[in-house]
Amino acid sequence: MTDTVYVLNGPNLNLLGLREPEIYGSTTLDEIAGMLEDRARELGLAIDMRQTNHEGMLVDWLHEAQAHGARAILLNAAAYTHTSIALLDAIKAITIPVIEVHLSDPKTREDFRHLSYVGMAAAATVEGHGSDSYRMALEKVAAGEV
Ligand code: DQA
Question: I need a surface site. Which of 4, 6, 54, 101 has the fewest CB within 10 A?
Answer without folding.
Answer: 54
